[in-house]
Recover the amino acids of this structure.
């Protein structure tokens, strides 16, 4: 089967699957409480793709070249029975990397079940080791120590090396960058420092709040000298650096100052079955309606191929005043 290539020559290799739009955190850069408050209407259960529907899409996407699947949310561990979905996806032919991104709050509870079901790795969001800073950012009163317990549980269950994602925001947690690097040096885990991005329309993003990756690297390298290293695979979003003394590696994800649109091979499936071809997309493509209307596998394959071959997304390369008013999909809806 011919693998689809988009209008900029990019193949489809990665599929990020949101399993819920709900989250137990209200991180200010993702689901600010003033928008996602008590009266916010989340998706009804009947609107979510079933595990069987998700597995079918993944199986068909694998036939078009997808080799990596990442489960996201919202907070994916809020989806009841998630290890069952992991077990279903773990046996899909062609998928050789099955991972999950989580805020870590429920990871100590679920790590063993996820690993037993066939999950390969986890990425954990942790924006500060300082409880006051971390709780201000997650706006849920959840301490960093509990996330660290989840990381330890995941490592013990064999879900490593674990990637720890830290979104860095000017004047909020930028002073914690070196401490985060130091905490995970020598553990085998990999901290990835992420530039604060203008995902969605509700997080009040300003360019002045972005801490450039170069600044992050300079701060860490002053304490622990770093050397750049090659990517693990084509299209890897993180720029990798190793500690010169052998203490491991870190990564920076610099969507704002170092756009990587040219090598982006990712599509995103929202919890209710819309396919998005960019994290900053303004609209998606409804697959659920086709799945529930009796579409054949060939029908779905033709739809996926058509969506991807028309793709021309490169938002991070064209980010400007002209794009500031775009009504982009929220990150909690399609995963980061």
């Amino acid at each position: 089967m011919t693998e689809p290539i988009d209008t900029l020559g990019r193949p489809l290799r990665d599929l990020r699957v949101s399993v819920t739009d709900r989250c137990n955190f209200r991180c200010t850069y993702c689901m600010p409480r003033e928008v996602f408050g008590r009266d916010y209407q989340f998706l009804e259960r009947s609107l979510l793709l079933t595990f069987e529907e998700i597995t079918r899409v993944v199986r068909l996407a694998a036939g078009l070249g997808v080799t990596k699947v990442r489960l996201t949310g919202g907070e994916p561990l809020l989806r009841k029975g998630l290890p069952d979905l992991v077990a279903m996806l773990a046996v899909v032919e062609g998928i050789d990397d099955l991972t999950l991104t989580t805020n870590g709050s429920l990871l100590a509870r679920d790590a063993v079940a996820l690993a037993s079901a066939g999950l390969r790795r986890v990425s954990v969001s942790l924006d500060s080791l300082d409880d006051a800073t971390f709780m201000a950012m997650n706006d849920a009163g959840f301490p960093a120590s509990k996330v660290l317990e989840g990381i330890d549980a995941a490592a013990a269950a064999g879900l490593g090396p674990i990637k720890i994602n830290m979104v860095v925001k000017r004047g909020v947690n930028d002073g914690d960058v070196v401490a985060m690097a130091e905490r995970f040096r020598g553990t085998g885990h990999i901290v990835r420092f992420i530039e604060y991005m203008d995902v969605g329309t509700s997080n009040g993003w300003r360019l002045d709040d972005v801490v450039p990756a170069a600044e992050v690297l300079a701060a860490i390298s002053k304490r622990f000298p770093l050397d750049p290293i090659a990517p693990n695979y084509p299209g890897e979003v993180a720029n990798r650096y190793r500690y010169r003394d052998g203490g491991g590696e870190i990564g920076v994800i610099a969507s704002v100052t170092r756009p990587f649109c040219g090598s982006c091979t990712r599509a995103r499936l929202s919890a209710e079955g819309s396919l998005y071809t960019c994290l900053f997309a303004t609209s998606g493509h409804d697959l659920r309606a086709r799945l529930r209307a009796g579409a054949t596998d060939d029908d779905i394959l033709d739809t996926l191929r058509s969506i991807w071959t028309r793709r021309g997304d490169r938002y991070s390369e064209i980010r400007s005043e002209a794009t500031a008013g775009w009504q982009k999909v929220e990150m909690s809806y399609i995963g980061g």
